[in-house]
Design brief:
With 174 residues, this protein is mainly α. It is built from nine helices and two strands, in the order E-H-H-H-H-E-H-H-H-H-H. Helix 2 packs across helix 4.
């Protein structure tokens, strides 16, 4: 039997839209929780991460009642790593039309994974900027701040690697 603390939540479409448009003007604690819900971490894991912000278990219920998150069904596998798409998927075939929405999704996943892998919780503010980004141009503007943060946290080599991955996806939009 699964307890509420073992439950895993995912963002709904409404939750993703809220992160971009801030229509509901969520309190900072709820917004922080919404940003970190990823379909892989349990309530217990997320609360351990956000305990210093004072996030409590009732915040999950509140976000769920607003339709911004939903619990995965017990027994279903956690979501696969939404991470950066494989290089082949991120780089379209030469001459193929590039879907702007798909490019923004690819960039969002790539930036989010780079933040997770290289900055961890220190990248929270940067992740909020990624959540607000809605166009390829927004991601172009976030490129250098992200690379600066990765360089400071993990060094020049890691920043160069992240930069090359980002440049591949951005080049496909040119």
């Amino acid at each position: 039997m699964s307890s509420a603390a073992d439950r895993v939540y995912v963002k709904t479409e409404a939750g993703l839209l809220e992160l971009q448009h801030r229509q509901l003007r969520l309190p900072p604690k709820q917004r922080a929780l919404l940003v970190l819900i990823d379909g892989r971490q349990s309530v217990t894991e997320l609360l351990a991460t956000l305990t210093t912000l004072g996030v409590e278990e009732k915040a999950f219920t509140e976000l769920s009642m607003l339709g911004l998150i939903e619990a995965l069904q017990p027994g279903s596998a956690p979501l696969a790593e939404p991470a950066a798409p494989p290089a082949a998927a991120a780089t379209p075939v030469a001459g193929a039309p590039v879907d702007a929405v798909a490019q923004v999704r690819n960039l969002h996943a790539l930036y989010s994974q780079a933040i997770k892998d290289n900055l961890g919780l220190r990248g929270f503010t940067m992740q909020l900027q990624v959540e607000r980004a809605g166009t390829v141009e927004d991601f172009r503007n976030l490129r250098q701040p992200l690379l600066d943060a990765v360089k400071k946290s993990k060094g020049e080599l890691s920043a160069e690697r992240v930069g090359l991955e980002i440049d591949k996806v951005l080049a496909a939009t040119a």
